[in-house]
Amino acid sequence: xxxxxxxxxxxxxxxxxxxxxxxxxxxxxxxxxxxxxxxxxxxxxxxxxxxxxxxxxxxxxxx
Length: 63
Ligand SMILES: [Zn+2]
Known about the structure:
By secondary structure, the chain is mainly alpha-helical.
């Protein structure tokens, strides 16, 4: 007999876990599980980049 039940368990391709929370990623928000996790990662990346004071002297001059 063919064990068809096991075929349903095996995915076509391995799912990647969400980098933020570790949940299975959704195709719509790949590689994240949701738009929220996507925003969190994006904001972290942007804030991390802008948090680095390349030339603090110029920033002080603008004020
Ligand atoms: Zn997530």
